[in-house]
Amino acid sequence: MKFTTLFACFLNLICLNYANAETSNSTSATQYLSFQVQTGLPGYASQFPPEPGRFSLTKAQMQEFVQSIVKAIGTTGDSRHKLTFAIGPLCFDMPDDETRQFIRAAFAVALENDVAVALHLDDSMGWGQRKGLISNPDNIETADWQQIPNTGRRMDWGRTPIKFAPQMCFNSPAILSAVKERAALIGTEVKRETDALKAAGKAHLFAGLIAGWETMIGRDFDTDRPLGYRALSHRGFSESNPPKDADLERVKVVHEFIRLWADSLHAAGIDRDKIFCHIAFTPQGLDHKEKAHTTSHFSPPEVAFSSSYRPGFSTYPEGNTFKEIQAALAAHDSPGWISAEGTNISPTGMPSGLTMETYLGRMFNHGAVMVNVFAWGIGGEAMRSHFFRRAAEDPEPLAAYAKFLRGEPLVETSPTGFSPEVLQAKMQRIQKELPAWMQSSGKQTQVKPLMEKLKALVKDKQWQEVDKAADEILTLIAASKVQ
Questions:
Q1: For residue 252, what are the CA distances in angstroms to 167, 277, 315?
Q2: Phi, psi of 51 (to 5 degrees)
Q3: With contact defined as beta carbons under 8 Å apart, do 259 and 194 qualify?
Q4: Per the count of CB atoms within 10 A, which of 72, 133, 231, 259 is most buried?
Q5: 298: phi > 0 → left, psi -120 to 50 → alpha, else beta; which?
C-alpha cells in the first residue's frame, strides 16, 4: 500500500487554511444577505415539492419562504444592509410564460415584504426538455475526437453522483442563439420590474442577476471523463490539428460562454454592476488528480473576471477557499464580488470551526456585496436536523444575520473547539513524516490498521474522530523517534 498516495487523496477533503485579506471598496451602496429558495427541479434540493406541470415556485411558496426568514431573524435590514431572497434555478426547461410569471411574482413578494430579490440562473444544466436543442448532436459535448455525445452530466453533489441532462456544447451555433434568446426574455422582464422599483424609490430591492450555476464543462456521467471536444472542434481544432493546450482552449470556451450570458442580459437593459457570474474553482470537497484546469472543470479563477460582469463564487469554508478567492480578487484590483452559494459548513459535513459571524465577516468585511446562503428550509421538517440546515438556521447563525442587518460590525474570530486548520497541520505532518518513518522504523504493520481506521472515519465524515486518529499516528511516530 502506498500511504503517501492515500493521504494525498484525502488531504483535499480535510484541509482548511484561511487568511484575512485587506478590505476592498465596493461600488454598491447596499450589501445583501441572501437566502436561496430553489425551484423543484430534478437534482436540486428544494424547500417545496414542485406542483404538477410546473418548474417554478408559486407566489404563495415564495411568500412562505420569505416570511419564515423574516420571522426568525426579526428584521429586513435597511437600504445599506438588506435581507434578500434569491430565486432559482431559472433554466432553459422553464417555459417562457412560466418564467415571466415567476419573475413578476418574485418582485411582487420583494416589494410587499420589504426585502430584496436576486435571480439565480442555471445557464446550462436544466435543458433536457428542450427537444429541439438536445436532439441535435452538435449541441452535446464529447470526451474525445470521435465526437460521441456524452451520456449525461455528472454532478458530485453528494455521496452518490447525480445525473443531469448531457453536457451542452457552449459554442455550438444553436446554443449561442438559444442563450441570446433566453437572456433577452429574462433581461427584458427584469428590466420592466426594476424600472417599477426605481419609480417607487425602491431600487435597492433588486440585488442582482447571478448568471450561472457553477458554470463549467462537466464530466461524462458513465465514464467520469472530462468533456469539451465538441467545443474544440467549433474552435477549428481536430485530431489532425489539435490545440497546443486543449485545457486552456476549454477555459476560453467557458469564459466566452459566461460573457455571452452577461452581454445578452445587458443588451436587454440590465446594468453590468448587477450581473454576477457563479463559479466553483476551489475543490469544494472533491478530489480529482488531473491538472488544475481539469480539476476546476475548465472554470479556474480567471473566468470570474470580465468587464461584462462581476465575480461570484461558491464559498463553502474548506480547502483554501477564502484564501484563494481573496488572492484572485487582489490580482484583479479587488472588485465588488458575491458569494453565489455557500454556508458555514463543508459539503463533506466537516464543521468549519468558525462562527457564522466570522464566516459572514470573511466576505462582507472583504469586499462582498452579496452573500447567498444555501440550505434554509430544504427538505421541509423531514430534514430539519440535516447538517446544512443546522448550519444555516440554528440560534448562533440567526444572531449573526440580525447583527449584520442592524448594520453592526461583524467581528472575525479564530476557530474554537474543533479546528480544521489544526487538523490540516496534523495531516500535512503525517504526509511529510510517515514515509521516512516507515522506512527507518520497519513498523508498517503497526501503522497500517491506524491508517485504515483513518480512511474509514474520513469516509463516514466523523471529523472529530479523524482528528483523534491523526493524533494516534503522530504519537506513534514521535514515540519511535524518542527510542
A1: 17, 15, 23
A2: -75, 150
A3: no
A4: 231
A5: left
Q: Are 346 and 317 in contact (CB under 8 A)?
A: yes
- Grid cell locating 272: 453590468
CB atoms within 10 A of CB 239: 11
Hunting for cell 472588485 — which residue is that? 335
- Render each residue's pLDDT in the chain as its tens digit; 483 residues: 343 333 444 444 444 333 333 333 334 589 999 999 988 666 667 888 777 777 788 999 999 999 999 999 999 999 999 999 999 999 999 999 999 999 999 999 999 999 999 999 999 999 999 999 999 999 999 999 999 999 999 887 766 788 889 999 999 999 999 999 999 999 999 999 999 999 999 999 999 999 999 999 999 999 999 999 999 999 999 999 999 999 999 999 999 999 999 999 999 999 999 999 999 976 543 333 344 455 579 999 999 999 999 999 999 987 678 988 999 999 999 999 999 999 998 877 777 889 999 999 999 999 999 999 998 998 888 888 888 899 999 999 999 999 999 999 999 998 766 766 677 778 878 888 888 878 788 777 888 888 888 888 877 767 778 888 888 888 888 876 655
Strands 153-155 and 162-164: antiparallel
Helix (H, G, I), strand (E, B) or coil at 311: coil
Type of residue numbered 48: F
